[in-house]
Amino acid sequence: MYEHHLSDNGQVLSLRKDGHETRFHAIWLRDNAQDAQTRSPANGQRLIALRDISEDLAISAAEITGTRLSLTFQPEDRSIDYDLAWLERHAYDRPAERRPGWTADPVETWDSRLMERLPTADFGAVQSDPAALQGWLADIARYGFGKLTGGPVQDQALMQVVDLFGHVRETNYGRHFEVRTEVNPTNLAYTGLGLQAHTDNPYRDPVPTIQVLYCLESSAAGGENMVVDGFRVAERLRDENQDWFNVLSRHCARFEYAGSDGVILRSRRPMIELAPDGELIGVRFNNRSAAAITDVPFDEMATYYAAYRRMGEIIDDPAMEVSFRLEPGESFLVDNTRVLHARKAYSGTGTRWFQGCYADMDGLHSTLASLQERRPEAAE
């Protein structure tokens, strides 16, 4: 049962439920009204600008009826209804102090123990069953990666993976790229060498936020794929040494790629990226593409390199890795702003042919949200 209290000047409304009080400013409530004159019923976009709301705005009356809250705003002299559950979900009155490096829902950080519950789905199931697709995409949103089995063994089948949730992001490598041994390759990914766990394309701004790798041939010995949760790496570094975490999140590294004719890509971003309120939102780590670091003050450079070294050691720790072998028709997807991926060395005998492409997490989140909105209706 909700109770409400209105401040004397009508600038703050307080809601109380089960002994817990949540406050809302009048201007926030008016700006976030969901009525048809404020938001388009067709697409939910706001129909008014802040300039359309009086600077002298105040709430003159409030009433709760069942699950609805009715507020009357002055000087409009207009009543608008609010869903109490919606207000509860969007409440912003909470303790402000959070330790830098906190992660938002539904992120769950992990280490090698995730091997016991590898986020995996069947390709045919996610293509035909919205519930299976929703579950797989939800796992990717939670863990930052997911594997698919049972896919077709055919050229560019990876495009069918991207079609499940979004669109290919084309780069200078094309709509997709081939990953197999080459003579005099332009990129170390095209050799049989093992690769340290890394994020892809840190020299781009913005980076592609999804990478898909799809197996078409895999008879060479070795070459297991490996993933490491960069967010868990950042948490471990922070827990070991707050100064090291701070120096890698406060100063920018530089990355560069100039391996192809007519292509010189550069970016300047921190290895550990935080939002202004301290939320952990990204990790960039790729030793092969690291350029000279020039944005760290002299007095902090030694600390920066100590932190950089330790971050690499944590990434290389076997206790952090989840590894798996892909067979033809299998693929995996990683959130390239969070999960580092690697490949163990493989022999020169046999064949190993993968195809890769890039996409973006906004499409995945959009598809997931749409499926989550639809599921309750489908159950009715």
Automatic annotation (TrEMBL):
The reaction(s) this protein catalyses: N(6),N(6),N(6)-trimethyl-L-lysine + 2-oxoglutarate + O2 = (3S)-3-hydroxy-N(6),N(6),N(6)-trimethyl-L-lysine + succinate + CO2
GO terms of molecular function: dioxygenase activity
CDD domains found in the cross-reference section: CAS_like (cd00250)
Cofactor (UniProt): L-ascorbate; Fe(2+)
Pfam families reported in the protein's UniProt record: GBBH-like_N (PF06155), TauD (PF02668)
Record carries keyword Oxidoreductase: yes
Keywords associated with the record: Dioxygenase, Iron, Metal-binding, Oxidoreductase
Gamma-butyrobetaine hydroxylase-like N-terminal domain boundaries: 7-87
EC number annotated for this UniProt entry: 1.14.11.8
Domain TauD/TfdA-like positions: 120-358
Iron recorded as keyword: yes
Enzyme kind, highest EC tier: oxidoreductase
Family: Belongs to the gamma-BBH/TMLD family.
Role description: Converts trimethyllysine (TML) into hydroxytrimethyllysine (HTML).
Name of the protein in its database record: trimethyllysine dioxygenase
Organism: Sulfitobacter aestuarii
